[in-house]
Design goal:
InterPro entries: Integrase_cat-core (IPR001584), Integrase_H2C2 (IPR041588), Retrovirus_Pol_polyprotein (IPR050951), RNaseH-like_sf (IPR012337), RNaseH_sf (IPR036397), SH3_Tf2-1 (IPR056924). The chain is an alpha+beta fold. The chain has 11 helices and 16 strands.
Length: about 350
């Protein structure tokens, strides 16, 4: 059947894609249905465009193919404890007589040496600053840069002013994104596994001598256990590496190992990612992966929310969008791996 009426064309497209009997199936299946029923000039192009600009499909379909965002090499420090990675392990049962519930993970980017500090979830920015001053800075000296996720502690004006006074720079990663602070994230995962293996589902355990311990008291032992194995990025144990680099520069072999480790990680990462081409003013959809508060069954909730306008490009791997509705008060900064272009039907 040859169609000349725009009304009939729109009806055919709606019937073969939007209707409940068509089920919003893929463009290939929609093309097959249209092909067997009707024809008009540019029918294939219009059918594909109709499927691509379907709001329900864009919001409900899971993202396939390569994700946006190539790996960026963070500038390496020249000396130990110049650059720190920081993050918190939370949702732990209260420990010790001081009722510690999270602990702070600090990792030196140069040597990858960890420092683990039990703390409280209600600690203020000043509490955290004093903890760093008494337990870290007094031993390592003043650092130049901190890489961390967006924690309320860092958003506090007092904390920011404190670091301005120290002439250090806060380098926030983007919301729900672990690449820039992946060093601490990987260590957190390892430590959580270590604690889980020892303490199982309780906050306490008994050793072979019958003494009772909780997760807080085993932190020093876990810290040492993490430093003992040989790490691929340096080719040494953290214990031997830490003492050596405090006295001398990295050897040529260590530098090669570090560069090879990054080159391998970048090559592996970039195989499944591509360079984004977003611009300010573009409409994009935001992944609902990290928004657990959205109403409805978890299995049936839309994979993406939006569309929203891009307000700013933050480097090549992050954007700031104009959130609205129930997301208005949420962090508007997203890595490009959690957004996708919105295809508008309006021309």
């Amino acid at each position: 059947m040859t169609l000349c009426s725009r009304l009939l064309i729109n009806t055919i497209l709606h019937q073969f894609h939007h209707s409940i009997y068509s089920g919003h199936l893929s463009e290939e299946r929609t093309l097959e249905k249209v092909k067997n029923c009707a024809w008009w000039p540019s029918w294939r192009k219009e059918t594909i465009e109709f499927c691509h600009t379907c709001d329900r499909c864009q919001n409900a379909n899971r993202s396939t193919g390569k994700k946006f965002g190539l790996m960026i090499h963070i500038q390496e420090p020249k000396f130990p404890w110049e650059v720190l990675h920081m993050d918190w392990v939370t949702a732990l049962l209260p420990s010790d007589d001081k009722s510690y519930n999270p602990f702070l993970v600090i990792v030196d980017r140069y040597s990858e040496t960890p420092i683990l500090l039990p703390c409280h979830k209600n600690d203020t920015a000043m509490d955290t600053a004093l903890l760093l001053w008494s337990r870290v800075i007094s031993h390592t000296g003043l650092f130049k840069n901190i890489i961390s996720d967006r924690d309320p502690k860092f958003a506090c004006a007092l904390w920011t002013n404190l670091h301005r006074l120290f002439e250090t720079k806060l380098s926030f990663s983007t919301a729900y994104h672990a690449q820039t602070d992946g060093l601490a994230e990987r260590m957190i995962q390892t430590l959580e596994d270590m604690i889980r293996r020892i303490c199982a589902y309780e906050s306490e355990f008994k050793d072979s001598d019958g003494f009772t311990h909780d997760w807080c008291t085993i932190i020093p032992a876990l810290e040492k256990a993490y430093k003992t194995p040989v790490h691929s990025s340096t080719g040494q144990t953290l214990l031997s590496s830490s003492f050596k680099i405090m006295l001398d520069k990295l050897t040529h072999h260590e530098k090669l190992s570090r560069n090879d480790a990054f080159d391998y990680a970048k090559q592996k990462w970039d195989k499944s990612h591509k360079m984004p081409a977003f611009q300010v003013g573009d409409l994009v959809l935001v992944s609902s992966l990290n928004y657990n508060h959205i109403k409805g069954a978890k299995k049936l909730k839309a994979s993406y929310i939006g569309p929203f306008f891009i307000l700013a490009l933050l480097g090549t791997n992050a954007v700031q969008v104009e959130l609205s509705g129930e997301l208005e008060n949420k962090n508007p900064t997203f890595p490009v791996s959690l957004i996708k272009p919105y295809q508008s039907a309006d021309k």
